[in-house]
Specification:
single chain, alpha/beta, 13 helices, redox-active center, FAD, Dihydrolipoyl dehydrogenase, Class-I_Pyr_Nuc-Dis_Oxidored
Length: 585
């Protein structure tokens, strides 16, 4: 048995960073790439992974120690520990019916594979890039560290959360009809069957991706990929190893959930978004730490299923990137339904109390006394996995936050290595990753292509939904861009009233000079679907007249976009706006 000294690797310009969390214990078996310690500087925090698998013989640091590159962290007895997922890793999804036959796998103990393009990561960006590159005639190797394709989004993110949100919507819609003449009994929630249905949805999509990969004759390797140099990646599977030699590479390794230091990770009541999606029972009281999109979506699910939900958000408002007037319908609804919504509030301490957790809050309006919860969801954001794939060994530049900078063709500083998705910058959204995946694949194929999208639309699939694209008022004010806005309230929409959901609003921002659309924000039922019209209008350079002259079906929610444009032009007939000019078109 060999004992290794595990030291702090190259962490860029960081020096004397503080150890704020020990993530392993002496005697613990750990996997390669499992996080060892969490360190923090005045700029950022980062997890330092283990370069090898083994058993921790002795920790050489303690909380509060300052470390730099080369500092000794621990002694590790090297053993034959299988490559495993990090405990609590939000990417740790497994399909019970998955098997190597789902993919094209090479069967030798250690193999050398050559390809035109290697794609590292099989999430929405990765599989889009791989499929597009294959369609353009390239020989592709797609590396995915988990047993199924689809990444976090498909397996433990976008898709399963939307399935549960649909279920929640059915429950709340049925309850909302009680004062309109239709009453149902209390719903019986079978979490086992609900989880099975959610997983069935996921399985259909992952099966489809496997079939598409096979049809394109893409070689899929399931294992952990690490660059060894600028033209080779080592892939370690559970039973096999490969050395993949490539002409070009696309890094699509995504992001991971941020952990708050000092919390009792490992306690069954403390979960991240992946744990919350498992739906292991319905907690009586639930605390959601983080009032962003992920936290509020899961809050909507658990509220509908019967939990008493509290939300704590450190910023001064929920979903801080959206304009406050568009957030108001959501805030009003959840304030009436949830046990509490605290903004400008942080959870200072989280302590174990048997099967429960006790939270101590700090902030204006926060409860003075600690509160006890049956489940606590930490949803405070995500950090890129830029340092998790050994890209620095290929000479790829990684910034202090873990992002990989790219140009408009998705190229890194190493011209034949590209990066897409969460790993190359905000916003961390699946549709942005897919868009960038196409660009990278086409650039490698020699096509004239580059990132030229004018906006990345954002949607919170809460109830009501919040959706926005282009400029927000806050951004326009900050940049000094002259604009006008026009707003149409949904309580004047016939379709919204027939749905019993007049609690929405549609807002357009447009240029003061020429009326061209600059941005849009919508709150209400199916706001995410309505936003696409405004996104297309922005990309095509449409102005208010273009929207107003487009006939919309009646009655429909899409009319609210039409009416908002007419409000701006002064031609609206579905509202009376005294003093507003009536210029006509």
């Amino acid at each position: 048995m060999k004992t290794l000294e595990i030291r702090v690797p190259d962490i860029g310009d960081f020096r004397d960073v503080e150890v704020i969390e020990l993530m392993v214990k002496e005697g613990e078996k750990i996997a390669k790439d499992q996080s060892l310690v969490l360190v923090e500087s005045d700029k950022a925090s980062m997890e330092i992974p283990s370069p090898e698998a083994g058993v921790v013989r002795e920790l050489k640091v303690k909380l509060g120690d300052k470390v730099s590159e080369g500092s000794l962290l621990l002694l590790l007895d090297e053993t034959d520990v299988p490559q495993a997922m990090n405990p609590g890793d939000d990417n740790a999804f497994v399909r019970s019916d998955s098997s190597p036959s789902d993919s094209v796998l090479l069967k030798r103990e250690e193999s050398v594979v050559e390809c035109d393009t290697l794609v590292l990561g099989a999430g929405p960006g990765g599989y889009t890039a791989a499929f597009r590159a294959a369609d353009l005639g390239q020989k592709i190797v797609l590396v995915e560290r988990y047993p199924v394709l689809g990444g976090v989004c498909l397996n433990v993110g976008c898709i399963p959360s939307k399935a549960l949100l649909h279920a929640a919507r059915v429950v709340t819609d049925a309850a909302d009809m009680s004062d309109r003449g239709i009453r149902f009994g209390e719903p019986e929630i079978d979490t086992v069957r609900l989880n099975e249905w959610k997983q069935d949805v996921v399985n259909k999509l992952t099966d489809g991706l496997s079939a598409l990969a096979r049809a394109r004759r893409i070689t899929v390797l399931h294992g952990i990929g690490q660059f060894s140099d600028s033209h080779e990646v080592e892939v370690s599977g559970q039973k096999e190893k490969w050395r993949v030699r490539f002409k070009n590479a696309i890094i699509a390794a995504g992001s991971s959930a941020v952990k708050l230091p000092g919390f009792p990770y490992g306690h069954p009541a403390l979960v991240d978004s992946t744990g919350a999606l498992q739906l292991d029972g319905i907690p009586g009281r639930m605390l959601v730490i983080g009032g962003g999109i992920i936290g509020l979506e899961m809050a909507c699910v658990y509220d509908a299923l019967g939990s008493r939900v509290t939300v704590a958000e450190f910023s001064e408002g929920i979903i801080p990137s959206a304009d406050r007037d568009v957030i108001s319908p959501l805030l009003e609804r959840i304030t009436g339904r949830y046990e509490a919504v605290y903004t400008g509030t942080r959870v200072a301490r989280l302590e174990e109390s048997g099967k429960q957790l006790v939270a101590t809050f700090e902030g204006v309006g926060a409860p003075a006394k600690p509160q006890t919860f049956d489940q606590v969801l930490v949803a405070v954001g995500r950090h890129p996995n830029g340092r998790s794939v050994g890209a620095e060994k290929a000479g790829v530049m990684i910034d202090e936050r873990g992002f990989i900078p790219v140009n408009r063709r998705q190229q890194t500083n190493i011209p034949h290595i590209y990066a897409i998705g969460d790993i190359c910058g905000e916003p961390m959204l699946a549709h942005k990753a897919s868009y960038e995946g196409r660009i990278a694949a086409e650039a490698i194929a020699g096509l004239q292509t580059e990132y030229d999208a004018l906006t990345v639309p954002s949607v919170a699939y809460t109830d009501p939904e919040i959706a926005w694209m282009g400029l927000t008022e806050r951004e326009a004010d900050k940049k000094g861009i002259p604009y006008e806005k026009s707003v149409f309230p949904w309580n004047a929409s016939g379709r919204a009233l027939t749905m019993g959901r007049p609690d929405g609003v549609t807002k357009l921002l447009w240029s003061r000079q020429d009326g061209r659309l600059l941005g849009a924000a919508i709150a209400g039922t199916n706001a995410g679907e309505l936003l696409s019209e405004t996104t297309l209008a922005l990309e095509m350079g449409a102005d208010l007249e273009d929207i107003a002259l487009t006939m919309h079906p009646h009655p429909s929610l899409s009319e609210t976009v039409l009416f908002a444009s007419e409000v701006g032009l002064g031609t609206v007939t579905d509202l009376y706006l005294p003093g507003k000019r009536k210029q006509g078109i």
